[in-house]
Amino acid sequence: MNGSPAMLNDFLKYYSTVLRYMDNYISEPINRYHMTFDAFLILHEIGASTKPILLMDIADSHHVSRSAISRQISTLLKYDYVYQVANPADRRQKSLLLTEKGQATDKQLIHDISLIFNQWIDQLGANRIQAMLTFFSDFTQQVIEPQQK
Hints:
By secondary structure, the protein is mostly helical. Helices cover 72% and strands 8% of the residues. The chain has 6 helices and 3 strands, in the order ααβααββαα. The chain has helices at residues 5-31, 37-48, 55-62, 66-78, 100-124, 126-148, and strands at 53-54, 82-86, 94-98. A 3-stranded antiparallel β-sheet has the order 1-3-2. Strand 2 (82-86) and strand 3 form a beta hairpin. Helix 1 runs antiparallel to helix 5 (100-124), helix 2 crosses helix 4 (66-78) and helix 5 (100-124) crosses helix 6. The longest helix has 27 residues, at 5-31. The chain is globular. The model has no long low-confidence stretch (mean pLDDT 90). It comes from Lactiplantibacillus mudanjiangensis.
């Protein structure tokens, strides 16, 4: 066994505390707009895309089913954050675009989340935040992505 029982206990304690804290602080401004964090990520991805983006493109990039993305998009449609444009060559394919309300919401949420993130940088220092991000990247590449193949 590679880790000690104490290491596992520390992991469980910090996993619960830190991730709940991060989730609560990041989700709080998002919840005001009747969205989940996942819906916000989709909203932001649609807004950041330089080309028309399809539901299946989003599902692929998030490594989830089309139905899971469809549920999130239905919320974004309901609150008028996105709209769909049918492909004239294949009307089953619909590009997703942000409405003006969606653009303003994305901009406001990025601002709000940036304030929170910048507080963490001020408290912990840029080097420690970068080390955390590097760890998350390594974890994604070495643990998550191999399991998805």
